[in-house]
Amino acid sequence: MSRRYVRELADGEAVAEVYLVAEKQLRASRNGSQFLQVDLRDRSGSITARMWNATEQHSQVFDAGDFLHVKGKIQLFQGLLQMVLNNFEKVEPNQVELTDFLPHTEHDVNKLLERLRGFLRRQSNPHLKALAECFLIDDELMRVFAKVPAGVRNHHAYVGGLLEHVVNLMEVADRLAPLYPGVDRDLLIMGVFLHDIGKTRELSCGRGFTYTDEGQLVGHIVLGVEMLLEKVARAPDLSGEPFPRELLWRLKHMIVSHHGELAFGSPVVPMTPEALALHHIDNLDAKVHWFVRDIREDQNPASAWTQFQTALGRRLFKGGTSAGDDEVIED
Amino acid sequence: MSRRYVRELADGEAVAEVYLVAEKQLRASRNGSQFLQVDLRDRSGSITARMWNATEQHSQVFDAGDFLHVKGKIQLFQGLLQMVLNNFEKVEPNQVELTDFLPHTEHDVNKLLERLRGFLRRQSNPHLKALAECFLIDDELMRVFAKVPAGVRNHHAYVGGLLEHVVNLMEVADRLAPLYPGVDRDLLIMGVFLHDIGKTRELSCGRGFTYTDEGQLVGHIVLGVEMLLEKVARAPDLSGEPFPRELLWRLKHMIVSHHGELAFGSPVVPMTPEALALHHIDNLDAKVHWFVRDIREDQNPASAWTQFQTALGRRLFKGGTSAGDDEVIED
Amino acid sequence: MSRRYVRELADGEAVAEVYLVAEKQLRASRNGSQFLQVDLRDRSGSITARMWNATEQHSQVFDAGDFLHVKGKIQLFQGLLQMVLNNFEKVEPNQVELTDFLPHTEHDVNKLLERLRGFLRRQSNPHLKALAECFLIDDELMRVFAKVPAGVRNHHAYVGGLLEHVVNLMEVADRLAPLYPGVDRDLLIMGVFLHDIGKTRELSCGRGFTYTDEGQLVGHIVLGVEMLLEKVARAPDLSGEPFPRELLWRLKHMIVSHHGELAFGSPVVPMTPEALALHHIDNLDAKVHWFVRDIREDQNPASAWTQFQTALGRRLFKGGTSAGDDEVIED
Amino acid sequence: MSRRYVRELADGEAVAEVYLVAEKQLRASRNGSQFLQVDLRDRSGSITARMWNATEQHSQVFDAGDFLHVKGKIQLFQGLLQMVLNNFEKVEPNQVELTDFLPHTEHDVNKLLERLRGFLRRQSNPHLKALAECFLIDDELMRVFAKVPAGVRNHHAYVGGLLEHVVNLMEVADRLAPLYPGVDRDLLIMGVFLHDIGKTRELSCGRGFTYTDEGQLVGHIVLGVEMLLEKVARAPDLSGEPFPRELLWRLKHMIVSHHGELAFGSPVVPMTPEALALHHIDNLDAKVHWFVRDIREDQNPASAWTQFQTALGRRLFKGGTSAGDDEVIED
Amino acid sequence: MSRRYVRELADGEAVAEVYLVAEKQLRASRNGSQFLQVDLRDRSGSITARMWNATEQHSQVFDAGDFLHVKGKIQLFQGLLQMVLNNFEKVEPNQVELTDFLPHTEHDVNKLLERLRGFLRRQSNPHLKALAECFLIDDELMRVFAKVPAGVRNHHAYVGGLLEHVVNLMEVADRLAPLYPGVDRDLLIMGVFLHDIGKTRELSCGRGFTYTDEGQLVGHIVLGVEMLLEKVARAPDLSGEPFPRELLWRLKHMIVSHHGELAFGSPVVPMTPEALALHHIDNLDAKVHWFVRDIREDQNPASAWTQFQTALGRRLFKGGTSAGDDEVIED
Amino acid sequence: MSRRYVRELADGEAVAEVYLVAEKQLRASRNGSQFLQVDLRDRSGSITARMWNATEQHSQVFDAGDFLHVKGKIQLFQGLLQMVLNNFEKVEPNQVELTDFLPHTEHDVNKLLERLRGFLRRQSNPHLKALAECFLIDDELMRVFAKVPAGVRNHHAYVGGLLEHVVNLMEVADRLAPLYPGVDRDLLIMGVFLHDIGKTRELSCGRGFTYTDEGQLVGHIVLGVEMLLEKVARAPDLSGEPFPRELLWRLKHMIVSHHGELAFGSPVVPMTPEALALHHIDNLDAKVHWFVRDIREDQNPASAWTQFQTALGRRLFKGGTSAGDDEVIED
Fold this sequence. Notes:
Six copies of one chain form a homohexamer.
Chain A: E1 14-28, E2 34-42, E3 45-52, H1 56-60, E4 67-77, E5 80-91, H2 109-121, H3 126-136, H4 139-145, H5 161-176, H6 185-194, H7 199-202, E6 203-205, E7 209-211, H8 213-218, H9 220-232, H10 235-239, H11 245-257, H12 273-297, H13 323-326
Parallel strand pairs in A: 3-5
Antiparallel strand pairs in A: 1-2, 1-4, 2-3, 4-5, 6-7
């Protein structure tokens, strides 16, 4: 059944839907009475809801992070839509579709999966092709692979983020490989596919993106190697030949070294051209994606600069008319 | 007139040609007499030459780094060609074509230049196109641009190295730009062209690659901005319009930030998507090129690994049968 | 027309003047009514103003960062002066003298300029003297030079801060040069003048000190070299001789290396005695100034220590009776 | 006279006792009147107290950090004990036993001291034994030694913390010394005793743990050496022999190097086996103690992880059922 | 058959034995003839051998790193034993017992193994006990475990080094665990056993200690996790119960985090008390062992200091009469 | 008795004097015989000496680092003076004046001492004046103070180096203090005097500059505080008043923090203006002195650059005609 997303709500509409509470406040109105103000959110956006003449009892029923089935009406107020809340009821997380409440990739996941399969099946190395197939036929794994974000914050932090990042990286690898004859295209494509595969066990999409216990204790690099070993054991069934020892080392090496430096959590540094190239294009894709999104989503049109981005350690230049620069210093 | 390159010398041949002395030793032979042993080099390679019954007088005539016009004969000795030296005469550097004695790009410089011009002239931004033209019509500059290495050591350290690096980067930029709609293709192409342009004043190709005084004191980043300013002043003559202020800032920013971090000598960090992308593809191209060449040129076929590469802080994996791994520890 | 500065206000006085709003709050009084509390500021200091029986409408007229023309009365309340606000009106920034609202150097700017000119004109090197003159006769530039702070925070962050810092550094250079015969006095004096000249284009004094777009994208080091190049092109007109190439390199080198280390944003490290000396005295003057001011301005007389100074990573010792130390640990 | 500790208070009890004010707020109740809410604390824990119908006058009598003699009644409210405050009076710090209000070691201080003396007196080196005795007979010093925390935050930050840490370290040294024949047991035991002795002058236990002026200006490493020198001058009186020069150097070296690296404030790095062992076991004991306490004291039983520990730069794994990990990502 | 070790050779003895060539030189004697000087080595030490009237032909038969079966006579010369070489023959590596030529632990390997088994079998946790048994019954693995060094250089770099290090660490863990009730003894013992187990696949003992290809590409941390996973799959056969999920995570976490910091190659930092304790005692044992050995083996009795130890970045203090310190500066 | 310094030797002169052997080689001459080549040195410079027809016996009598009484004759050979050695005899170090063989300050030590005393006695703070006097009347200490170098390498590494450095620093402090009213001149002067006083116990001038055992184990910072404490105990005898507690802390703080950062071995960072100023002028004086000397003493007049200075991590620019820069890249 299709739900009514925040983005679809319109002035005058009566609502009866489940939303996630992002923030809650019990406030005093000017006439001395109290009202409850709540930010409701789903994967499409968020809206402010107010329940008039609310009491502390109302307020104690739920907290930020809970889900509420609300009944109310949409109104236009000072140019923004808001919801007048008549009634609400708490809903348990296991009764909702959690991913309805998380941000999603803007791309069609099925098309991304199609492209992923295409890249993997077009490999000419029969061992790598067989190995890839062992992953592709694992429905459970691929279902998670298509959902997990690439991280809990920063770049590609949304449902489908890892898949989107990996497919774009394959595109990059595919276009650049001809320029670097010393780099084995198939190996690079396969390294792109595997480098973050451990994130399917490291990260969890609940009411938000978090680390699993195992993920936090072991890290996606080691988990990725574990997953590779499970599949590589089955590859000979498909290829009819033992998987070459050195080829396996090279794959493990790409997973293990892809952060590029020990200080970033790689147990070893890249020592093959493919591992090096993987490290650099991974970094390029993640960072450029991050810059472009921060610039696009910045809230303040009056400034030529984004807010200071703590994780990047800088503000980004959006450009356009920037008052600051023209302010000549006059007497 | 065409010279006789080291690579072309053959057993039994009589030689009369100028070479650069890479190393010189006066040694005692087993019969008590002395002989002079010299490594002679040109851009194609090097050969060992011996002059029998030499004296200290012979030895004092020249030093490593000097040019000698030698007469001698090529012989096969223990599987290697060597030269028996009958006679030599010192030649002043201004009498030789210095670049004959330095390593060169393997690519055809004219074709590289052709591709460079192509990329620059296919830009759709008229200001950038006009600016690029101001550089392209500066014959003296373009002549140096086509010769200078990308560095004195490490990657692309040969005549034509900068040009080769820049053209390959343009190819990379051209292929990746469609994948990142938030990145302005023309700006990135122009940033690729300009990012190391200061190296034409920072580096010098004499008997080897060195820094100019100005280059060492000021650095190619600042010199590059200087050169950009000289040309941008003339761009309006070609485009018929003033060069936009913000566009100039963005170009300067790409030059100034392309090392990516303050610790690597960038006065500011990248704050636009194009500057960020430039930094990453520059790094990718330089490092992959470096890895591939070190692997290809490694001298020891018996090992699956290259020598330890000090500047990279690691050995590189060449692969192939590696005895070490099979040596089981037996009682 | 002279304005009435905060510092001049006296008990009982009626005020009608423009101030900058530093902070704004609509608060409830004990009797249930609301009042508006505002911190008003100009370059001389700040005062708290209260408007009784204010409404949300009053509050919505302006924000922190706006200028208000206020009418009110000064009262002594609990030992502090405050303003009772009767009336206010918003004033556009272009109608005020922005620098009236920013902190200023305590020194007489004209005298500082006089000393600056003195140091520069007493140089014996005719090329440096001519070059200095090219800057001094640029009225527009010198007007900005006399206003810009040395930074947006930290040391000398006030109108006239750069000038004060530079003149004090010249004094330092003048006194130390005789102790270091290997250091060229003129070169050091000129380096002092030029090292931060790019800040006149990097920083902007609007309602506060900010970076210009160009300043943030390019940085004052590169902007300083640009400005030097503009002026050096005209120096021969004054000296009658071409400006020596090596002398120009040395000047550029001082600008480019004055942060002392790559990690602090210098593209190259100091490689001449003058560049090294400049780096060290710049650091000395900035830091000692910073320490002394933080100690002098610390608000808490009960402690022998200043607040923790985040940018310095430490608290500073003011001295005097410090209770903490005498508290013996008794049973 | 024994006081009534927070931990001992029971529902319905009337209280008349002195507590430290940890936090103070004047708040409005729903009926429009105001009440005073105060967190009261002593070494055993803290409790919330409320005084109804309080006025701003009440509130201005005291601040957080002050001591109050309170009269009131204990009530159970929503499952937690709170105090209804009828009356309070400010008490000067010199009228209270400061350490009653600070956290304490859970161990019996006298038994710790007994074990400390035991370890020191069982040394076989007569010089070290005599030196230790010079410390042990300094009652004033030993009284402070038994009280001072090992630090103001982080590990062992409670009254008696240094003593507890040192005695546990002696136990560690005693057990490990037989495994490392190259390590002199007596020297290591004595190094353990002396390494942080300067903290008796560096830290102060007032209303909280703070640095003394001297401590902050000079640091416990240098103060420790000073204290060693004072005592070593008297050791010959007890041993009848001059204290060996090299032995003194070795002791000073252990104090001076025990932070292990220059970056952690050691003027020299460990250069003897005993100094090295001291550094490592000190680190081990401090960090393990810290981990175990943070895990034990974590407030949130629902999570398998502690809060993020800023000073450690990580969260710690407590284990147990962790919901996060089981949340499978379902369609 | 027992061989004649270098350490056993005596003056006057006739030798016929295989040794490893550590160094080779063809030198001219004072009478104009040439002699061959060779350093011969086995696991017990090294000796200088000279063959008089040798020719270049003799010299070209072998190189450093080769094995020679030599015949000669031992002589005392200037207080040192040397060998006069009459005759030699090259021997292929596969004909010798490689470990005869490498340094060995001074401990009895069988006793070390006995103690290792004791510690592992005394664990009370049945899962860990069963897991340990899966390793102990793998004869091939345990044979390698008993041979591999703990590293190729630095500490415990000899045959049996890893085993010696691990057993000593178990002793440490066993003694310290009672002092830290928050640390699980069994988990720590098992962590000690497993932390470097990957070195059995990372390192190789050939003519010297080297990395295997897989070891260099993947690292012992990831290899160790692989080995744990292989064995943990079989533990339920012995214990009769599934291996607890969280227990496995804790073991993997200890392996993965035991270098303590990302910068040292740990993909994650320690987040459990056992992982933290393991990191610290591993570091303690390795470094103390290293210090003690460097001090013991230092060659220069005249100095109170060892040579500068590059890998430690310092000289170590041996103590004893040090001339330097007494040299008063006299006029 | 005055000795014959190397610098004074003239062509044709017969020598009979003691020199230090800096280097020794037994070499073969062209006619097959051997000769001994020795570099002889004293504080004024060095000269090459050759003894013809020497034997290994001659060579074994002495080593580099020994003193020889030589008899020989000075000859001009290829433009350089050399000594023909007829005869030599080893001399024990205790028979020579060690400092005759070490490099010395170029300044007159007595005048430096005079200036030092002047600065110290012109202090107006009676406590600091008394304290300074306690140092000045300690003849033994002042004798060492006048001899010790400021370091074993790098800057001021010669007899009298510390004194020269300290006196120049006092001059600097004296000139700058008036520019910084927040800096106490006397405190700064006294800090300059004391900051490296521990070097009188840390360093030793034997046949070269070395660390004492105590110096290496404890470091000059802690030794300096020890020495301050010894003297400060006597200051009240001279001033008639107890030495103020806070003043002592400030002095200790200056010694303890003068390296400026923990990473450079300061246990605490500067927290007073005087400590900060001391750190910066110390650094300035040391580094400028170092630059100027390296430039002055560089051996290669053909280059505009010094050799690469490893400890500085750079080459220094000497200036002058630099061929490299003019080499245009020509076809």
